[in-house]
Amino acid sequence: VMRCHDNFLGRCLQECLFLVPQLLK
Length: 25
Prior knowledge:
By secondary structure, the chain is mainly α. The protein has one domain. It has one helix and no strands. It starts with 7 loop residues before the first helix and ends with a helix.
């Protein structure tokens, strides 16, 4: 999630949307 700064429009959306739900589980 912290890699959002590297490519916000790229991996941020995919990583955040994929990792956040797992963390909320």
